[in-house]
User: Which sequence fits this backbone?
């Protein structure tokens, strides 16, 4: 049985302000909690229903400092999901450390991607296409938002992120670094020789695309050819299609 | 000023039961309403704020039978969007007519795609890739659900759909018709010679994929190669990536 104080504390983590203050975020649902328990994230607290706890026996060295068995109703009451009859974890946020592309590696640059669902989807796509690093402008959705974590379907445990002033970051990249940027009037992604040297792929805001200040740092502007009449593709969809072409072209 | 009865009637259309009973569905927000007014859908009623009405002067032959000027608050109260300060239309649903692929045409087959957001996204992707026909299993999300309409970003005006028993439909296709199906263990989509003959692309349920009963009607099973560790891709993302490869391969 969760105390009123405890429940209130957990619910406070629905808000960015308190996530930052406490350095904790929520991971919800069976699959995500299972993945975070198996990852190198530090889980402080596990709230689990008896069903989840029995099915997911944890080795002694993986036991979180605090484990509580709760009812599905309690879980749903403190979490953000419509229903959760499995588990919820309070997990330590990570230090914000700089990330750079190693030779041959693909790194995503997100400029002002605002929608948490889109960011979560992009983490999942990155994870599918073997992209391990995502650099986000300071204005991009906060990765610890429960909607991001949930939309990433566990991929947040395998992808690293770095929030920074993206203009300064891009300016500091060595001359000659391949930086592809997604625009509506770039080169046809089907004809680009991506090669195997790796580099960066920059994706922009849902409504406005990549900011003009960043354009000079893009070495090649790419476009997904359109065969019909939709005005645009969602940023998550576009990320997947470009990464697919990149991986395909690099074989 | 909307009467209480009128407001109640509009709100009843949030539910499938009443959409079916009245043969009407909701289109909300400036962009979608503008597109539906310019399409061949029959708009019965337009509720618009003064701002929207002034900016979108309608030629006499495009005036809906009923037009009301309302406040943004009234709009938001009767609609499903978090806020809507532009317009809402009540639109006649279409007859459910059979669709088939013409030579060279690509048609989507959706088996039990349950999430309205996914269906809306798929309509938008279809529209981008020049796919004009989508055939849905009877268990696929209802296309007139406001979440589908909204996620399609206006593409519902350019893509046709047909709801049917998908097993019977697929069984009735002429022998030799190319039917590609998305599976986790099919042929690498990067290496498939799609050619220009067109055909069908079948996408399955979010959790379970394509039903076993449909497998015999799939002539070629396709897979998006994975380079990392995510368990799967969202069905909308996978649809976009496969269509992109199909269009690229058909050039």
Assistant:
């Amino acid at each position: 049985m969760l105390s009123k104080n405890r429940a209130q504390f957990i619910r406070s983590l629905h808000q960015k302000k308190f996530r930052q203050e406490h350095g904790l975020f929520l991971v919800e649902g069976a699959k995500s909690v299972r993945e975070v328990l198996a990852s190198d994230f530090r889980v402080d607290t596990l709230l689990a229903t008896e069903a989840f706890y029995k099915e997911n026996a944890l080795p002694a060295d993986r036991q979180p400092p605090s484990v509580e068995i709760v009812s599905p109703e309690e879980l749903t009451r403190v979490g953000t999901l419509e229903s959760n009859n499995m588990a919820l974890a309070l997990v330590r946020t990570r230090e914000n450390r700089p990330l750079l592309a190693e030779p041959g590696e693909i790194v995503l640059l997100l400029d002002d991607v605002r929608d948490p669902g889109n960011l979560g989807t992009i983490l999942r796509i990155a994870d599918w296409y073997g992209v391990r690093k995502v650099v986000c402008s300071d204005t991009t959705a906060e990765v610890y938002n429960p909607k991001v974590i949930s939309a990433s379907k566990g991929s947040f445990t395998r992808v690293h992120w770095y929030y920074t002033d993206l203009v300064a970051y891009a300016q500091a990249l060595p001359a000659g670094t391949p930086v592809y940027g997604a625009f509506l009037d770039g080169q046809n992604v089907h004809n680009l020789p991506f090669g195997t040297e790796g580099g960066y792929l920059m994706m922009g805001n849902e409504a406005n695309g990549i900011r003009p200040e960043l354009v000079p740092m893009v070495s090649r502007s790419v476009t997904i050819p359109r065969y019909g009449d939709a005005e645009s593709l969602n940023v998550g969809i576009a990320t997947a299609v470009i990464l697919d072409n990149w991986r395909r072209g690099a074989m």
Q: What stands out?
A: Chain B has two domains: 4-92, 106-249. The interface with chain A takes residues 121, 124-132, 153-155, 158, 190, 224-234, 236-237, 240-241, 244-245, 247-248, 251 of chain B (CB under 8 Å). The CA atoms of residues 126 and 173 of chain B lie 21 Å apart.
